[in-house]
Design brief:
Mean pLDDT of chain A: 79
Distance between the termini of chain A: 86 Å
Helix content of chain B: 25-40%
Structural class of chain B: alpha+beta
Shape of chain B: elongated
Distance between the termini of chain B: 57 Å
Number of helices of chain A: 3
Oligomer: heterodimer
Strand order of the largest sheet of chain A: 1-3-4-2
Order of helices and strands of chain B: HEEEHHEHEEH
Structural class of chain A: alpha+beta
Strand content of chain A: 35-45%
Low-confidence stretches of chain A: 123-133
Mean pLDDT of chain B: 87
Radius of gyration of chain B: 22 Å
Shape of chain A: elongated
Number of domains of chain B: 2
Low-confidence stretches of chain B: none
Largest sheet of chain A: 4 strands, antiparallel
Largest interface: A-B, 45 and 36 residues
Strand order of the largest sheet of chain B: 1-5-6-3-4
Chain lengths: 133, 146
Amino acid sequence: MKFSFLGVLLVVLSGCVSLNSVSLTSVPADRSKRVAAASERFIFMGFNFDNDYVNSITSDLKTQCPNGTVSGVLTKSESINYFLFIFWKSRVSASGYCVPGKMASANDIIRKRKPTDDGSDPAPAETTEPAVQ
Amino acid sequence: MLKVSFLLFACVAVLSSCAVLHSVQIGEIESSPDLASVPFEIKVSEFGIDLNDVKTTGRILMDKNSSDKANDALTAIQYFQMGPHTGAGVYSINYVDHLENKVREQCPSGRITGLMSIRETAEYPIVKGEIVKIKGFCLKSKRENL
């Protein structure tokens, strides 16, 4: 009797997880600093009127890597079902690697590539490398 | 009083949409104290029709004979809409074709970071809003941003 009660309790309280989507960007060679962020929402009877809770993930990752680039970003979107899809949770998590100082070259590009007035693509920056004969 | 409350509840239920998240994808995120990140958002959507909702509504509004016929016709249409998909079927998927141009319009310099692609559905009875959202940051030098 006690065993069956515990079994039912375990079934009710443990969540079944299903994966909605996964994505991964290119993974950097320098993987010394790992950063991660997640955002989730508890949903009752499917009543969810927006998905704005995912917006905070990008700024969370940005805060953790203020002077660099977050690369190798693994994004997972999952649903955790607690009870017959009456109570469930939607969770989006992202993790990656902070590569410090990668923006130095990006700043150079910004300086070289000024935007045009009409919004069209600017001409590519001039390179200092000698042309191949 | 009870009738009015029920009507209000029904109105809220019909007019409000439930947002269903299908997928999220986040790209590389760059940041530097020398550059300002200007956020931008692009949203494109298309009408989708849920044939299962149409069947259910037909069963409520029509007599049994007519609803059975409509049900058979809709089931035949559904046979041609099988396969992996997110959300309800739409009549054209061209609504996502110009996303790249729209991103370029938002950030002509091309220095885009923290690009997040969101695929979601706004669910109303029968009609669904099939949405693709692109959020990101346009990097600008702080002087340029002023």
